[in-house]
């Protein structure tokens, strides 16, 4: 019998308890022994719960119990989660987490700490919710060098973009609906709509691909707040759809770039058909070519089932998993991982589109604004165009890259 | 240093050697030690090869060398592969294979043999080529009960169907092109076009999902030979595309069914956009919901890279992997796993569509044949309709199920 503890009894944490109980037999077979939740750490009062006896408020009780082999961290954030996870790993307990902020911020350090103490630090659920991505990347693609990742990794914004396209909603209407359905935070939806959540996820995948820590702070991140229905309709007339894409690329010369930004995705691209709260992540291996992993990016039971799969791996494999699931510490860069590659763009402008240094082809106009195509330009050229337009009393309101088909 | 042997130096076998050399450093890091190919078993003459020194013609040489920890089987078929793999496993060597026919036929027996001798028997490359599916299913979805699988698992037929749809080719034209490009066998393309290859792959996935051996012989299998351009065009006017679907389903009452057959896939379904030689497999977990794995289903280096990832797992995990990668032996059924569920159909008929026991709505006609829709009918009812039509001098030429959107 393997005993585990859950830290943080919110949505995912309570899901972990439910999954462990509902699929106990299958989990026992695969772990090689039954898995039982012995403690739940939460500061809140659960004395009315049928599981009241499991709750503790002090991490030391868990750490003092030699029966506890692995700990699930589903507190979220870093303030409590980070020191608690450190203490668990230092005590030789494996930790399984869905906490992308913690992994994106302290991943290299916690991986090294786990290795040092003979424990596993696993985080499949931190990207893609329940959709397998971390394990396939480091295990199934172990014989590949990964040079490119492109994904729709935030379900909330993908739901909103789907509503803006299909039902002609504005950004505000789509956000209100997402909040009503519980997909977006009511108080501050910024983590989702400003791209920070997607940025943390691509930082984790980029770190795994390149082998050293990539900090979210170094990844240029743009959200979807500025998108208008004119952008959506212009994309449609170009046989594209707008998606919030998190991407990572290693150039032939070894240089890295990464970003989170709304992009025009051609209808023929695999990512174009990924709608609603679904996620999809494309990974390019040098031997394998492109593979795509698709599924729901969030939700209580899907995410919890990924955490429980990690618990099984942690119990079976221990620190050996870190031969492949590992990246080195690295300093934060003092510059951003800017995209220097030329590509096609859609720019939304006001006040005129002719006679500037970059040729613009008008696509669609509305209320004095025009969406135009610009071919084969870098981000720096687009930034220069914005300055040039301003000097002539015009305005470049938004610039979106187009992905290849 | 871990030494391995390759049995069968064809396309995939030579790819394994190439992958091991090209990505040696990454493989060494992930395996925890360098991996070196010490022997290649092949009956043919490779004395001109730069690797001539590695070739042997006698399995006993490999088995007598205690340095060899794992053996790759890429001979194909069962005549030689099966007894050789048995002998390797009996000697305690782990075996990694891309051989779907052998796994579909002898999987349960070889898994038990591996376990008995403390070895691993791994076959990620047997389904989906290099696209991860077996490992995600038994490891990442370990906390799930899998009740449904639907996939495009044969790249050759998917390429042909894509050509029939996009370029209006006939079956014969598409087959000739597939043969010319090396996707289909020139001599006997039956394994692909008659669905046997897809049948073996779904038998493997079904066995893994339900926990006991499912024999290809018990899976009703229909190929794509009878499809005409009228079927393709009728599907298009119903906003569907025809795909060869391999599927498995566990009903609420625990009954199993499975099949391989061309089906109408609505354009909105994730599988509809999977074109050319690509594969995609949808797996439904009770906790996770639907996930889809997408990638190239074949090819030398993709397939070889999956075999090499298995070699790394075999060296690291050994027989422990079979706590989750396992199914029990079972007798061959004396009946087929027929689909008893009612669904929508497209039937192609000659000689009249009115006045029969099942109402038919004509969709499209050509050269005296008409494609009609039939709603909410079972396979048994369609079979009865065929008999009824024949008795009245008409003919039911082809019946295709429609997948849900």
From TrEMBL, chains A, B:
GO terms assigned for molecular function: homoserine dehydrogenase activity
Keyword Amino-acid biosynthesis in annotation: yes
Pathway involvement of the protein, from the record: Amino-acid biosynthesis; L-threonine biosynthesis; L-threonine from L-aspartate: step 3/5; Amino-acid biosynthesis; L-methionine biosynthesis via de novo pathway; L-homoserine from L-aspartate: step 3/3
Source organism of the structure: Gemmiger gallinarum
Keywords for this protein: Amino-acid biosynthesis, Methionine biosynthesis, NADP, Oxidoreductase, Threonine biosynthesis
Every Aspartate/homoserine dehydrogenase NAD-binding domain range: 8-124
Name recorded for this polypeptide: Homoserine dehydrogenase
Reaction catalysed by this enzyme: L-homoserine + NADP(+) = L-aspartate 4-semialdehyde + NADPH + H(+)
Entries under PROSITE patterns matching the protein: HOMOSER_DHGENASE
Domain Homoserine dehydrogenase catalytic: 132-312
Homology family: Belongs to the homoserine dehydrogenase family.
UniProt xrefs under InterPro entries: Asp/hSer_DH_NAD-bd, HDH_cat, HDH_CS, NAD(P)-bd_dom_sf
Entry annotated with the keyword NADP: yes
Stored NCBIfam families: PRK06349.1
EC number of this enzyme: 1.1.1.3
């Amino acid at each position: 019998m393997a005993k585990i503890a859950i830290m943080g009894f919110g949505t995912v944490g309570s899901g972990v308890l439910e999954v462990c109980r509902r699929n106990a037999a299958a989990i026992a077979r695969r772990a090689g022994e039954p898995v039982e939740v012995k403690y739940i750490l939460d500061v809140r009062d659960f004395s009315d719960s049928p599981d009241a006896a499991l709750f503790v408020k002090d991490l030391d009780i868990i750490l003092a119990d030699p029966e506890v082999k692995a700990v699930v961290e589903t507190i979220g954030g870093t303030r409590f989660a980070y020191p608690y996870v450190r203490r668990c790993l230092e005590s030789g307990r494996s930790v399984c987490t869905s906490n992308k902020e913690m992994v994106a911020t302290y991943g290299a350090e916690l991986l090294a700490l786990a290795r040092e103490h003979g424990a596993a630090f696993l985080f499949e659920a931190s990207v893609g919710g329940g959709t397998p991505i971390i394990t396939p990347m480091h295990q199934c693609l172990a014989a590949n060098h990964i040079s490119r990742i492109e994904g729709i990794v935030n379900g909330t914004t993908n739901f909103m973009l789907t509503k803006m396209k299909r039902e002609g909603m504005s950004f505000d209407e789509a956000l209100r609906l997402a909040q009503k359905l519980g997909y977006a935070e009511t108080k501050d939806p910024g983590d989702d709509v400003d791209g920070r959540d997607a940025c943390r996820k691509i930082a984790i995948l980029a770190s795994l691909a390149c082998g050293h820590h990539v900090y979210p702070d170094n990844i240029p991140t743009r959200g979807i707040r500025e998108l208008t229905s004119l952008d959506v309709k212009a994309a449609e007339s170009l046989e594209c759809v707008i998606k919030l894409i998190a991407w990572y690329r290693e150039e032939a010369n070894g240089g890295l770039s990464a970003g989170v930004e709304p992009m025009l995705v051609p209808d023929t691209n695999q990512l174009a058909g990924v709608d609603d709260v679904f996620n999809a992540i494309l990974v390019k291996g040098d031997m394998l070519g492109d593979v795509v992993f698709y599924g729901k990016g969030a939700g209580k039971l899907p995410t919890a089932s990924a955490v429980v799969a990690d618990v099984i791996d942690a119990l079976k494999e221990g620190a050996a998993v870190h031969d492949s699931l590992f990246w080195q510490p690295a300093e934060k860069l003092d510059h951003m991982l800017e995209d220097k590659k030329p590509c096609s763009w859609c720019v939304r402008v006001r006040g005129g589109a002719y006679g500037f240094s970059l040729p613009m082809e008008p696509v669609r106009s509305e209320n004095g604004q025009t969406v135009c195509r610009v071919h084969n330009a870098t981000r720096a050229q687009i930034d220069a165009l914005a300055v040039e337009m301003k000097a002539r009393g015009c305005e470049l309101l938004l610039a979106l890259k187009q992905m290849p088909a």
